[in-house]
From TrEMBL:
Chain intervals for the UniProt region annotation (Disordered): 31-74
Annotated PROSITE patterns: PROKAR_LIPOPROTEIN
NCBIfam families: Ig_SerProt_MIP (NF045841), MIP_near_MIB (NF045842)
Extent of the signal sequence: 1-22
Natural source organism: Mycoplasmopsis gallopavonis
Protein name (record): Membrane-associated lipoprotein
Keyword Plastid: no
Protein origin, superkingdom: Bacteria
Ranges of Low complexity composition bias in the record: 39-72
């Protein structure tokens, strides 16, 4: 997000091209510089808070203020501080190295972090219940969870003393980079290191939803004001599944996985058989924007009239005219604490206009898929997706696309069962995951839907028209359905938390200068690939680009992988490892593993808001609310912090087993060098009451079958098409969970 100076969790999935802001972007967790209030005569945009104030980090005392303990790790009333002696864990020969390294790293991380907070954070910590702190810390020694003070400063969820947890205890935190990482290493842009990454690229898409509000576009008054009615939203999607074609022809109905927040801007009037509602609100958007713009115009006309009067008074009565000075006060911004009602209203309107323009959704008019083809070279620097000759794109009519699964309210338990926060008693849990159905054989409303465009050298493009939609589907999916089953990707049957030790002990052979060497699989097991907005690609030499091409960076994407930007790190023939970052690390003995409910349940932590899906609804769900907290097992990869547009990127292992999906980055500026991925499968984790009644539950978002799970992609297909519906993943029909995906306990 370009215009905020903050460090915080930001959804990086969507780029409305008109504003280059991430959809659903969170608020900053630190005080940001508020723009100077403006009046209609200033050459500035935006405005200020009416009262000139801004929320700071921190907020409120603990829910259970107990004694005020004399805690040795609070070195004075304004600062928190720890030493290695404050963090004690059960050490064994097997875990000694990772635990000792964690303690050293955590002390450094914590003490640097503590310096960035205002004094009230340390003061509030002193009000926490000492019995709860001591009990939590005692359990942490053997459960390998962070100590209470660590969790507090990182804004992790903490026990509240009533067998529940409180989320968002200090309303946001600062996500810092791991001190031993290569500075600025967010991954590798526009290069495929090996055939494994190339195969992922062939299965992945830069997806763009082109939206427009026809009421705004056709309104006579707004036309005169040159108000934009369109918005484009960019994310990443990839092949999850396809319907088996009983005739033996190439499949034409495909299922692409992405994030829920990437799919949110897909707006159309739902059909009777569509499982989800996401109706466009064209009239509401028109009325909201029009009323504000008309009032803005009125105020600017008022300003012009008053300026003319001021000039008149000064001309008639001299430069010190009393009447002129009185009118000038109306427009003065010299005293921020004493702004006139006019300035307060005008700044508020400017702010609201910008917000409404940023949030404009309209109605989807087309869905664009861009993907790399088999001609894409290995280990060669590529162009952006709009310029590379290996990229094809197709534009689909909205009638060919629909949402068939969202990871909302997928457990029978509810957050109210384990959260003490009163403001979240009515919300449900969500995994930021969605599945789109693409039907290439549906009747088309325009011939463009049977056209594939391809960039060719010289800045021009060529078009190939298709009359056979089986061939069209084959081309745009790179012949994926014709691959032998062992070469096709599939959801993993395991999760990394459960198999962490197994992956650590397993060895793979690598080649170093012609010599074979065995290393731990966990260091090379993970591959991620996505399409962030090219404007965030810091490797592009903008000075070498013509002006027109610089502008296009905002409207296209750069392929991105989790290979280190430092050529001395990593192994060329495989992927990369998990991050040792401390930003989301609540399993201290398992770097790169996180419980999202504990470390990051709210995207908008500073404003204490649950995730808002707006008017997106599951028709059959008992819950028809708008708000959700993020839930589930999460992964944090090394060298993987692509920015806006990469939401929806798949995370896989070295054998092309799909482990999860990226959905958020730890900060908006790319400083922390890490992001969050939602695991598709969890065996669950019992915290033995360390977090009250909260435990990480068993679930599989693709296949279902978790102990308390009530929805999955498989079950949604069964609801739509019946139990005999057959796809690549469900060859026996959607009523059957394949044996290898059934939970054993």
């Amino acid at each position: 997000m370009k215009k905020v100076k903050n460090k915080f969790l930001l959804l990086f999935g969507l780029v409305p091209f008109a504003t280059v802001l991430a959809s659903g972007a969170c608020q900053p967790a630190i005080k940001k510089e508020e723009p100077k209030p403006v009046n209609p005569g200033d050459n500035e945009n935006g405005g200020s808070n009416e009262n000139g104030s801004e929320n700071q980090n921190g907020g409120g005392s603990s829910e259970n203020p107990g004694e005020n303990p004399s805690n040795p790790i609070v070195i004075d009333e304004d600062t928190l501080h720890i030493t290695t002696n404050d963090l004690k864990y059960s050490i064994t020969p097997e875990n000694a190295k990772v635990i000792n390294e964690y303690v050293d790293d955590e002390v450094d991380y914590f003490n640097r972090l503590a310096q960035q907070f205002p004094p009230k954070i340390a003061q509030n910590f002193k009000t926490q219940n000492i019995q709860i702190i001591n009990a939590f810390n005692e359990q942490s020694k053997n459960s390998f969870q962070p100590y209470y003070i660590d969790s507090y400063l990182k804004n992790y969820s903490l026990p509240s003393g009533n067998n529940k947890i409180k989320i968002n205890p200090i309303r946001g935190t600062f996500r810092q980079y791991y001190r031993k990482s290569t500075p600025g290493d967010r991954g590798t842009a526009r290069k495929l290191a090996n055939e494994n990454y190339k195969q992922i690229a062939l299965e992945s898409y830069s997806i763009i939803f082109h939206n427009d509000n026809e009421l705004i576009k056709n309104d006579p008054e707004l036309k005169k004001m040159n108000v934009s009615s369109s918005q484009n939203f960019l994310g990443t999607a990839w092949i999850l599944d396809y319907q088996l074609d009983e005739t033996g022809k190439y499949p034409t109905k495909w299922y692409l996985a992405t994030n829920l927040h990437v799919a949110m801007p897909f707006k159309k009037v739902a059909g009777s058989n569509d499982p989800y509602l996401n109706e466009p609100k064209l009239e509401e958007e028109l009325n909201a924007q029009k009323s504000l713009l008309i009032r803005e115009k009125e105020m600017e006309e008022e300003y012009k009239r008053d300026q003319a009067l001021i000039e008149k008074y000064k001309k008639e009565q001299g430069p010190n005219s009393t009447k002129a000075k009185e009118l000038e006060k109306k427009y003065s911004t010299a005293d921020l604490n004493n702004l006139s009602p006019y300035i307060i209203e005008y700044n508020k309107i400017k702010k609201q206009i910008k917000h409404i323009a940023d949030e404009l959704q309209g109605k989807t008019v087309s869905v664009e898929l861009n993907h790399f083809t088999k001609s894409t070279p290995i280990n060669k620097l590529l162009e952006t997706t709009s310029m590379d000759p290996s990229v094809e794109k197709i534009s689909l009519d909205p009638s060919q696309v629909r949402i068939v699964y969202l990871g909302t309210n997928f457990l029978s338990q509810s957050p109210k069962d384990y959260l003490s926060n009163p403001e979240f008693q009515g919300v449900e849990e969500m995994a930021d995951f969605a599945v789109l159905e693409i039907d290439f054989a549906k009747p088309k409303s325009a011939d463009i839907n049977a056209v594939i465009r391809k960039q060719i050298t010289g800045g021009t493009s060529e078009e190939t028209k298709y009359t056979d939609y089986h061939e069209l589907a084959k081309q745009i999916t790179a012949g994926y359905a014709d691959l032998p089953s062992e070469q096709q990707s599939k959801p993993a049957t395991y999760n990394v938390l459960t198999d962490y030790d197994k992956l650590t002990k397993e060895k793979v052979n690598i080649n170093i200068d012609g010599t074979s060497k065995a290393i731990s699989r966990i260091n090379v097991n993970f591959l991620a690939l996505g399409f962030p907005n090219a404007d965030s690609d810091h490797t592009i030499n903008r000075d070498a680009l013509p002006p027109a091409q610089k502008v296009t960076l905002k409207f296209t994407s750069s392929l991105w992988t989790n290979k280190s930007s430092d050529p001395s790190k990593g192994i060329a023939e495989y992927g990369y490892g998990l991050s040792k970052s401390l930003a989301f690390r609540n399993f201290v003995d398992k770097p790169g593993i996180t419980d999202i409910t504990i470390t990051s349940p709210l995207i908008k932590a500073e404003t204490n808001e649950a995730f808002d899906v707006l008017n997106l609804r599951d028709k059959t769900s008992q819950y028809q609310g708008r708000y959700y907290i993020n839930y589930g097992l999460g992964y944090v990869l090394n060298s993987w912090q692509p920015m806006a547009g990469a939401s929806g990127s798949s995370v896989r292992d070295m054998y092309n087993n799909i482990l999860g999906i990226s959905y958020a980055t730890a900060d908006a500026q790319g400083i922390s060098q890490v992001s969050l991925a939602q695991a598709f499968r969890s065996n669950g984790h019992n915290y033995n009451n360390q977090y009250g009644s909260y435990n990480l539950e068993q679930y599989d978002l693709i296949y279902g079958g978790g102990k308390y799970q009530i929805s999955s992609y498989r079950e949604k297909l069964m609801q739509i098409y019946g139990g005999n519906y057959k796809t690549k993943l469900f060859k026996q029909g959607t009523s059957v969970i394949p044996e290898e995906y059934k939970f054993k306990d």
